[in-house]
Write a structure and sequence with these properties.
By secondary structure, the chain is an all-alpha fold. It has a domain of 118 residues. It is built from five helices and no strands. It is elongated and about 90 Å long.
Length: 169
């Protein structure tokens, strides 16, 4: 191929990425982290509210210990997933690869926690949480998110003082 002088090599210039997918993943990750925080608080409230009742007369066995254990573990898992989502979102906003990795790890974990917490009963909260986790995973995995992170790592040198670029004709 013949290239004319001054017109480059014909290779497309690296325009980078707009960051839409990365920023969307980060915003959705922050929303998911906040929702996991709400789930943690709700689980803690349930644990603190369930106490063995001495005045209840029932032939059923007292399951308060099981409920406390179950919701206690659910609160711990929701807190861990919430921290993963929030840390991943913050790091992705800072264009760090670790943020992308955290969101990729937190999304399937949050999806599994969603099924564990709500079971297989289809309700609006469960479907919304599942769609949120799938959307975060999708936006975090796409290559344009990685390109946006890589574009932020490129060293940008300042132009020397008095530098006048050549006019473009």
């Amino acid at each position: 191929m013949n290239y004319q002088y001054g017109y480059g090599t014909g290779a497309p210039a690296n325009q980078g990425s707009s960051g839409f997918t990365a920023r969307t993943a980060a915003v959705l990750g922050a929303i998911a982290g906040s929702a996991a925080g709400v789930g943690t608080v709700v689980s803690i409230v349930v644990v603190s509210d369930v106490t063995p009742s001495e005045h209840a007369s029932s032939d059923l066995p007292d399951l308060s210990g099981v409920i406390i254990l179950m919701f206690g573990l659910l609160a711990i898992m929701a807190a861990i997933v919430g921290v993963l989502f929030l840390a991943g979102a913050a790091l992705l906003f800072a264009r760090k690869t670790a943020g992308r990795v955290l969101l990729i790890v937190a999304s399937p974990t949050g999806l599994a926690l969603n099924f564990l917490a709500f079971g297989l009963d289809p309700n609006l909260v469960r479907i919304a949480a599942a769609l949120l986790c799938v959307a975060i995973l999708g936006f975090a995995v796409v290559p344009s998110t990685g390109r946006w992170i890589a574009a932020g790592k490129q060293l940008r040198l300042p132009q020397p003082a008095g530098y006048m670029p050549y006019p473009q004709y």
